[in-house]
## 1
Amino acid sequence: MIPFNKPYLSGNELDYIKQSIDSGCISGNGEFTRKCHWFFKERYGFDKCLLTTSCTDALEMASILLDVKDGDEIIMPSFTFVSTANPFVLRGAKIVFADSSALHPNIDVEKIEGLITSKTKAIVPVHYAGIACMMDKIMAIADQYNLFVVEDAAQSIASYYNDRPIGSIGHLAAFSFHETKNIVCGEGGMLVINDDCFIKRAEIIWEKGTNRAEFYRGEVDKYGWKDIGSSFLPSDIVAAYLFAQLENIETIQSKRKSIWRQYHDGLKELEDDEFIKLPYIPEYATNNAHLFYILCRNQSIRNELLSFLKNNHINAVFHYLPLHRSDFYSGIHGDRQLPWCDYYSECLIRLPIYCELSEKNIEKIIGCIYEYFRRRP
Ligand SMILES: *Cc1c(COP(=O)(O)O)cnc(C)c1O
């Protein structure tokens, strides 16, 4: 079976984990955590970032920082993972789901303004597949209506909106280092703070509601309880693993991009013959090769192709089940239709993509997709 995903070991993970253990300091906010923060600052200009135990947790920190409370409304796409929504629901917010664009699965920016009410607090764009949302437009709407923007950048490391790194544009942004993402540490994430007014409180929320981060820097001589918070920081052992990955980000990205390119070029003919659609990348967005998807003409073809691939020992997958139709939220959402979200949910297939996927196997996957469409009447 060709797996859908396989976490890549870039080489120094075990060495760095050993270093961390040997140092005797393996709790959070240690040496490797600082190295990761420094890396992001140097490379992407993220002035303030905080590693977290997951992207879900980074979004939960964002929700606390924005003082999200009962009755607030948060606008986000329905075509996303539950973790985009849950952190806001946990604090009492109502999620107002927006449709995707006809061209790509990202939020349709033209649909946002019509969803804004006096209760709207924030917009949470999701950069699906690491392809940027139209951020200028989203930030302009946020300015006009006095809203916050939290980028769900879970899939978006090393990707750009025009010349600006994804994650540097919204007031806050959240990344994921879950084993299915480009850069991984098992479970992990990061909050990026682009509006200085949140920095001090973010550190406190991160460290269980205490000002321990200030204490560690020697800025105060004792630390204590300052605010609500939780244990959002990962162990330095996890940060050690992550740092080894970050040091190899160029290699990882170039391997993924080359696989993406091979799929794209290999499947182009099927797009020209209108059997499938390939990913659309707007001119303002770069491609970080987080995932490669194809769009089938309808759900039954999609499901048949998925089984055909499975029978040929290829594990391709679909997603997402739209959040506005979920058991948990459909009752609250009501029957407002989101047809493009449904379309992506019904017609999209993600193909295996990971650093060690061999050319031979990529050829096999492409060949299999051709075989399926050629055999169809
Ligand atoms: C992976 C993912 C998350 C969750 O990330 P975790 O690190 O697993 O919490 C959230 N949003 C999107 C869009 C994702 O792809």
Note: The CA atoms of residues 213 and 227 lie 14 Å apart.
## 2
Amino acid sequence: MHSPKQPRILVTKPALPDMDSYIDYLRGIWERGQLTNNGPLVKELEIRIKDYLGLKHCLVVSSGTIALQLALKALELDGDVITTPFSFVATSSAIAWEGCRPVFADIENDTLCIDPDRIETVLTEHTQAILATHIYGYPCAVDSIQDLAVKHQLKVIYDAAHAFGVNYRNQSLLNFGDISTLSFHATKLFYTGEGGAVVCNDDYLAERIRRMRDFGINGPEAFYPEIGINAKMSELHAALGLCVLSGVSEAIARRKAICSRYDAALTGRLVRPVLREGTEYNYAYYPVIFASQAELQHVRDALNEVSVYPRRYFYPPLSRLDYVGQYPVPLAEDISARILCLPLYEELDEEQIDMICSVVLRALNNYSKE
Ligand SMILES: *Cc1c(COP(=O)(O)O)cnc(C)c1O
């Protein structure tokens, strides 16, 4: 057991909003007596997210995973979907769950996003779509991916679970591709507890997803023109989201300051993924790349010793899942074995950041002497 003086520092911790602001929303819910079914708070959250990020359509749903499933379903995909091996499991599992086949293309060694040249080498006549992740909120090669999509008539879905608040070339990164999906899980920068959203520019697609998330209902008379599912967000989750959204700009600013402090101590000692030029980052994650898996494990053990628990986002590569085909992805294999996300959340104070940095640096020095 660790001493109570030393609280565990995890990779992330939700900065809970002021409870009174949440209770104010709850009072409204109690007065109206409406807990779900596209209530006023869900509608308000959708409008405020669209305004904040500059989006055309944003449909909030009950999770980031169901957002991916709805995207695949709404685009009527049932064949091969080229995807990245370096992401959270939901990126691959949603493809397989929807009856499609995940085909893996290796990643770029600097941005760690899917490599468009590799996409081209695994393309076949069965390929219907590309599902790429803006990993850590780092933008994919959206132009090259778009060129491939046009050339081969493919749909493009971005798993943008990490990309809330990221701008690329002066607009939200969520505006690229046919559909982008968000996760509002508690571990994400903007959260509703559980939740997510589907973002798109196409009116028809948006209408379709709006119906699909609500059993396929097309109006108050409840007729069902096509298959749907229950992916609705509740008013209780939307209320939390409205409170969290009010503080999200401040959260990004605070995270930026923490990242600068990490940079000042660690630059030159650890490799970092490369952010594409023209990106305004959201500071959602602080990934660092070690020289080897053994070095990573040595540093992680030293951090665990002092109750600091970074996470291996994302290990192992998804091409190792039992229910997918085998594809050689040597870069994803190599990077995922050597990458670690350091703790990053608004409450982390300077003393804690400095402590983490000094433990990392000391462990790196010890390791190189071994
Ligand atoms: C969190 C996450 C998801 C899944 O979102 P949930 O809201 O937890 O269902 C999907 N993809 C990526 C890359 C994620 O990090």
Note: The longest strand covers residues 127-133.
